[in-house]
Input
Amino acid sequence: MGRGPEEPRAANAAEHGAVPPPRGARQDDAAPRHAVERHGRDGRARGGLLSSSAALVLIVVPCVAGLVFLASQFAGMARVFFAETALALFLGALTLVFGFWVLRRIRPVRDPSLHACLAAVSWGLTAATAAGLLANGNLLSLWSKGLGLAFAGVWGAALTAPLNEEVLKLAGVVLVAVAFPRAVRGPVDGFTIGSLSGLGFEVMENFVYTMNAVVQSGGTGGMVPVVQTTIVRVGLTGLGSHWAMSAVAGTAVGLSAAAAWRPGPRRALGAALLVLLAMALHWLLDSPLMGSLPGVMFKVAVVFLTTMAVYFTVRHTYRRRVRRALASEGAALGMGRSASMALAGRHGRRRELGHVALPERAAVERRQEQMLAVAEDRAARYVSAPGSDRRLS
Output
């Protein structure tokens, strides 16, 4: 049987490391056909529009309410300490922008959905923090009455924050996963969205602690309390703070989302253990144990290294599945195995584009995105199936 009109171009592209168009597809196709069939034109799963819309409302309304609450709490303080407040907000904005960039880049293969990321950060900044302030006060009062003022004064933070703050941040990850189902389809997505929810919470909590430090100094410390608090909370404990704990808990959401929210016993147990691990890490960091500077650094290291162990585990599994799917897609299109698998990394895609003539790069880049969409869709579909790695081979 002779070659069709697309096959000579595919063979020529494969020889030069470019990405040929999928068989029978136009060069300007923006998404693989089966992805559109499964998820609809807007990227939502069929039948999930109502729940997605409801989840989006449940994100927006608490965020607006939380923002109003926080503004009312700190408006008076901002008027009295305007310069200190401005500096605290500026340093918080720098932390937020840098952390947002880093945490989006840690997702392997491609950056996550910008809308989902913004929703997660907004939830942590406003809704979760405002609810956390209210819940913390109530729980601390409960501990004081039931366990005594002395005990609550020492252990109150360790008993309070892991319970309410981790649950509140995790609720935002669940809502984002429902509102943006294409953005959270597996553990690696849950890790990323969870870390961003924690980042937002961390930035706002830093602001709260900074303003408290200004008041505790009697208003005579100027900018010093602002800078000192930022150095301690960002430079000293930042690597093992809320973003890390929420990333671990968010991985549990990704596990459940990968199973269409109907996880089996093993997956449900794994998700529960991840949430408990996040709470245990939070308890360790807030506990009075090892309160010296070396002790605090040790606790931060434990939180960070544990988080990285979870990250590299889910990252390795996800990249392996995507690479195998890319190899399969590339073989069907006549591409070399190394050229197709190179698309699993940002540097690899840039390297492959460097082999293409400048006028053709835009079209080749679109075809790279097509192949990645297909590969990531396959990886997401197989992530919940037993023996999925063998099926992708």
